[in-house]
Amino acid sequence: MQKNQTSATFLPSPETTDSGAALLDTTGLKCPLPVLKARKKLREVPEGGRLTVLATDPGAVKDFEAFCEATGTRYVSWSEADGVYTILLERP
């Protein structure tokens, strides 16, 4: 896996989205694994930083809503395309 070095210019890697949000692919995983993996990945995200989660579990949207309520994480948005849910979270 490619890692980005800290610099003035942020270059996307396979671990980030074009907007610079960290990316976590949990496609194929069932509850509670997407939420558990996201909680772990959010620890690596700086305060105010964002995490994009890709999930195929139809319950992921509700699971992440509950997770965000319980942890204070901001649930920015979600969308669905071709059975893949894209969930954008922001670390408090």
Q: Looking at CATH, which topology would you report?
A: Translation Initiation Factor IF3
Low-confidence spans: pLDDT under 50, at least 5 residues? 1-14
Order of helices and strands: EHEHEE
Structural class: alpha+beta
How would you describe what is shown here?
This protein has helices at residues 33-42, 60-71; strands at 22-25, 50-55, 74-81, 84-90. It is an alpha+beta fold and 92 residues long. It has a single domain, classed as Translation Initiation Factor IF3, CATH 3.30.110. The longest helix is centred in the last third of the chain and has 12 residues, at 60-71. Mean pLDDT is 85; it is low at 1-14.
Key attributes of the depicted protein:
Translation Initiation Factor IF3, 92 residues, 2 helices, alpha+beta
